[in-house]
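Hi R.,

Quick one: here's the Extracellular serine-rich protein sequence you asked about.
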Amino acid sequence: MLSTITIVLAATTSLVSAIPTRTARDVPSVTDELTGVTHTVVAGRAGQLIFDPDNVVADIGDVIEWHYLPANHSVVQSTFDAPCLPLSDTSFFSGFFPIKEGQSDEVFQVVVKDDKPIWYYCAQGTHCSSGMLGAINQDFDSDKTLREFKELAKAAGPGVAPPEITGGERIPNPNPNSGV
Ligand SMILES: *[C@@H]1O[C@H](CO)[C@@H](O)[C@H](O)[C@H]1NC(C)=O
Ligand SMILES: [Cu+2]
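And here's the predicted structure, written out as tokens:
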């Protein structure tokens, strides 16, 4: 009887270890409460210097996930008033994504931590002053609109890239076959 139980236990143990565990990429490594909602933004749709969509409304705990098309784009968080300059040392920067065709193998994820507007741009060359900017949770009752943000950027110099990737997670594309 005892030996039968031992065998059953051993079989159960090996079965359990064969079940795949959740992979590390399932959630960004933040302690915030996540909603499970992901907003996909594509950088460089149709070879244009745009983010699509460039105006996202998200809840706290949602993930913004940027996908990159050719050629070599990035995202950097800025202030509204200085569109092509990094907000701070710790605000997000995705690094550059130099790719020739298709979409990048990696994406950049940022978790929305509060309900304040988030302004961002691409730091490549003059992409920022050319209109490659976006907003998350702009205040639609305010004068600080995405349109005005893009107007301000026209007068800005080349986009400034922070020294290192920060403020988000650069990870393998979770849905590589889904297209963008
Ligand atoms: C991508 O752009 C960055 C910033 O301009 C540059 O340093 C890097 O060399 C570029 N990569 C390629 C492969 O063009
Ligand atoms: Cu760009």
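The longest strand covers residues 38-43.

Cheers,
M.
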